[in-house]
Amino acid sequence: MFFSLPLTPLVLPSFSRIFLGFFIICALFIDLASTSSDVHKGYRLVSIQESSNGSLVGLLQVKQKNNIYGPDIPLLQLFVKHETEDRLRVHITDAEKQRWEVPYNLLPREKPPSLKQTLGGQRKDANTFTSAEFAGTELIFVYETDPFSFSVKRKSNGEILFDSSYSNLVFKDQYLELSTKLPKDASLYGLGETTQPHGIKLYPNDSYTLYTTDVSAINLNTDLYGSHPVYMDLRNVGGEAYAHAVLLLNSNGMDVFYRGDSLTYKVIGGVFDLYFFSGPTPLAVVDHYTAFIGRPAAMPYWAFGFHQCRWGYHNLSVVEDVVDNYKKAKIPLDVIWTDDDHMDGRKDFTLNPVNFPRPKLIAFLDKIHAQGMKYVVIVDPGISVNKSYGVYQRGIANDVFIKYQGKPFLAQVWPGAVNFPDFLNQKTVEWWVDEIRRFHELVPVDGLWIDMNEVSNFCTGLCTIPEGRICPNGTGPGWECCLDCKNVTQTRWDDPPYKINASGIQAPIGYKTIATSAVHYNGVLEYDAHSIYGFSQSIATHKGLLGIEGKRPFILTRSTYVGSGHYAAHWTGDNKGTWEDLRYSISTMLNFGIFGVPMVGSDICGFYPAPTEELCNRWIEVGAFYPFSRDHANFASPRQELYRWESVAESARNALGMRYKLLPYLYTLSYEAHTVGAPIARPLFFTFTNETKLYGLSTQFLLGRGLMVSPVIESNKTEVEAMFPPGSWYDIFDTSKVIVSKETHVVVLDAPLHVINVHLYQNTIIPMQQGGTISKDARMTPFTLIVAFHLGAKEGQCNGSLFLDDDELPEMKLGNGRSTYVDFYATISNGSVKVWSDVEESKFALEKGWFIEKVVVLGLRGSGGTIDVQVENEVSHTSKVEVSTRDHVYLEKMKVDDGMKMKNVRVEIGGLKLAVGKKFDLSWKI
Questions:
Q1: How many CB atoms lie within 10 A of CB 895?
Q2: Dihedral, CA of residue 889, residue 893, residue 896 and residue 901, to nearest 10
């Protein structure tokens, strides 16, 4: 939605900014040095035993106490378990007192036993040995007793994945420190949410602070809206790539220092709950990771259409005009959004009776729903403090708000004074679900957009409503604090001994958010639960939408945590209409695929200020291939709908036109994401894992395993330098055009203003349809299969798949009678080509009447003769089948052994009417 609050240093004079930056860097290095191993002597392992459930449980004792950042916790419990073949858990906590952990009901997992539960077993005195191993199927836990340290090794090759002997373990109430050695050639990814100027790879000595904050995404290397304390480590060992991931499941604020040869966590609370995922491929890593944190949410089909939003659609007539203009411009549009403009006084779950009168809004929704379009609105967590406001009244009656000294904590956001619901309280969840139900009865919206949920607060500290003046008074920018406030720094929760680099300026952790000494249900401190607020709200909102009509929910959230992708999509927040922000959007999108949030995208053309016409052309060409594709802008910026410039409209029709043809492919990728966690948009190294040149590539991406997007992301360019891994690559807009790469290298591609380069990789089959301007209509058009062989191959195999279902069902799965899954295969062998399908649960596809009209086969040495067609193992008539060929056009000069240019063709088999729900077999001789 809204303006994220800019950071103070951004408006300082240049000398001040430089001095402040130098000071902060020096302070951070002093902090790092002050906790080095010469000060902290760590812990020693006193005893250890193997429990009946196959885990290790040990007791650690501090070696030498000190008071830097507070007293050491004297006794720690170590819990180690190989939870699956590919997942190892290492959990370290206070042996005598329960500590805060991410709630087990929010992120389900096994609870470690208490030390008392394990005292009866056979315990081993750690004084009798110095080191030992605890092996699982894929990973080995190795530990040293004095000082205690541990490492994790890969069983297959002995590679050390994590080694805490780099520095001694530190465990205090409000300061935890743990480090690992790293090989200098390791490539690391993750640790977000942050805007990374150097691209997707983590960059040594950049700041990685994790603490959910309403800070605009234009701020680089700063803790932004989400917290994801997970990284993936990709190493190339002797030409063979191996990937693994490490998750520190901890919601407290933290700094993570990556130095190139080491990584250090500095956390201000909680426990060490470490999970190691063995991989060994990037896809396997994300599979293992999402199997633990929750598979990505099922998305409705329409969510993959194009979305239009703006903060500043001040009345319903403007919204209607936007929809009509998209239709006139013949630009695809599935979903229209409103920011807080539809609200009465910016209050959640209300309608402005003047600008969005309910009868007219209902008539508008009836009209667009009949066409297949959808409507999504915003909901912020802050509930207006207003005794005549029913949502607030019911909230007070149900005692749902976060407290400070026994009273609802008072803050300020858009409606003025607000209280924040406590989603850790089940009673609050029930109230929220009921409010969603009530609102849906008022307005039948199709999804909810939950924003400002880091939590954002325009004020800092303990506030009261001023007497004798209106707050806010309707003047000024709207985000200036007008409550009467005083700082809250008297507690150690508001002013912890270690200062994380919050907001990139070591801001107090309660700055512009809920005071960290505020209290949630059951005495939980905001200090501990701060970064899971958006996550807990996503869970409650998902429950609310699911309960209305039993339909598949659509939720877009700004703040995320580990597991948020199981419930919601994400957009990358308040960006700028600049070429730099266009470039950054690719890295952030790819990171969220690794985080298990594959439905992600950035505000196309930028949230603010006004983009140039050229930039908006290029941004829609990229944004048309974001998994989540939405144009959104700020009220202070000029209107930037895609039809505003004829040149942008042309680029939109071209790029979104292809997106809508690819919708069955994108939707099948979302099914893959939902079942095995695979990102929809992926870095190239996910497919070409051994190609080290691709490890830092952040200007191109894949959709699935074989559709590569190579955009223009610089001004005044009509060419793009694109990296092509080895193999044959076909232009998806004109599949007769091909690039054959013998090794990974850069190819200069033509890219005039309205052209986006997208290439299909060999060995791939993708299903496409004819497109349209609304996904509902596009979905019912005939299918075309694109089969891509390696150019001129004598032997080859291709495969692909298609998932179809009733996308209103909550579950995205087979076995419910309302879904069909098709595997497609193709081979070249002994001069013959064969293309066939295998169908699971055909009933749904047959009922819908979907059929394949064309099969286009790329890279063949010739067209051949008669096409044999079989359906369900019976010969089918081929009188209407039409075969046409076109020579492939080579976009690079090709070196061929005999010095002659290769002659290869694209073969199109048309006139088919193959039911998607029936097995078919096409074959012919070349």
A1: 9
A2: 40
**Rounded-to-integer distance, Cα 247 and Cα 635, Å:** 39
Burial 563-582 (b: 16+ CB within 10 A, else e): bbbbbbbbbbbbbbbbbebb
Sign of the dihedral through C-alpha 169, 170, 173, 175? negative
Contact between 698 and 582 under an 8 Å Cβ cutoff? The reply is no
CA distances in angstroms from 363 to 37, 229, 358, 396, 684, listed in the order given: 69, 46, 8, 34, 46
Q: Which two tokens stand for residue 489?
A: 């720094």
Average model confidence (pLDDT) across the chain: 93
| Residue 345 identity | G
pTM for the full predicted model? 0.95
Q: Is the peptide bond before 204 cis (omega within 30 degrees of 0)?
A: no
Q: Answer positive or negative: Cα dihedral of 455, 461, 464, 468.
A: negative
| Alpha-carbon torsion (321, 324, 325, 331), positive or negative | positive
Element (H, E) at 910: strand 905-910
Task: Tell me if the bond preceding 472 is cis, omega within 30° of 0.
Answer: yes
Q: Which residues are catalytic?
A: 451, 454, 574
Rounded mean pLDDT of 724-736?
A: 98
Task: List the end-to-end C-alpha distance of the chain, in Å, as a whole number.
Answer: 57
In the three-class reduction of DSSP (H, G, I as helix; E, B as strand; rest coil), residue 482 is classed as coil
Distance in angstroms (rounded) separating the CA atoms of residues 702 and 758: 9
Give 475's pLDDT tier (boundaries 50, 70, 90): confident
Which pair of structure tokens corresponds to residue 187?
């490539």
pLDDT at residue number 241: 97
HSE-CB of 788 using CA atoms within 13 angstroms: 27
Tens of pLDDT, residues 248-307: 999 999 999 999 999 999 999 999 999 999 999 999 999 999 999 999 999 999 999 999
Tell me which residue of 760, 758, 762, 723 sits closest to 743, measured CA to CA.
723
What phi and psi, each to the nearest 5 degrees, are found at residue 619? Answer: -70, -40
Picking from 342, 307, 316, 218, the residue whose alpha carbon sits closest to that of residue 641 is 307
How far apart (Å, rounded) are the C-alpha atoms in residues 257 and 269? 17
* 8 Å CB contact between 661 and 570: no
Question: Of 134, 175, 140, 133, which Cα lies nearest the Cα of 155?
Answer: 140
Determine the Cα–Cα distance for residues 550 and 797; give it in Å rounded to an integer.
42
CA angle 281, 285, 290 (to 5 degrees): 150
Q: From the CB of residue 40, how many other CB atoms can be counted at a distance below 10 Å?
A: 25
pLDDT (mean) for 592-612: 97
Cβ neighbors of 623 (< 8 A, separation 6 or more) are 601, 602, 604, 605, 629, 630, 631, 655
**Listed residue (52, 109, 59) closest to 83, CA to CA:** 109
Say how far apart CA 507 and CA 501 lie, in whole Å.
7
Alpha-carbon gap, residue 151 to 141, rounded angstroms? 6
Q: What is the pLDDT of residues 82-103, one digit of tens each?
A: 999 999 999 999 999 999 999 9
Other beta carbons within 10 Å of 604: 31
Q: At what angle do helices 579-594 and 613-623 cross, to 10 degrees?
A: 10
Count how many residues are written for the chain.
926
Nearest to 655 by CA among 608, 705, 616, 700: 616
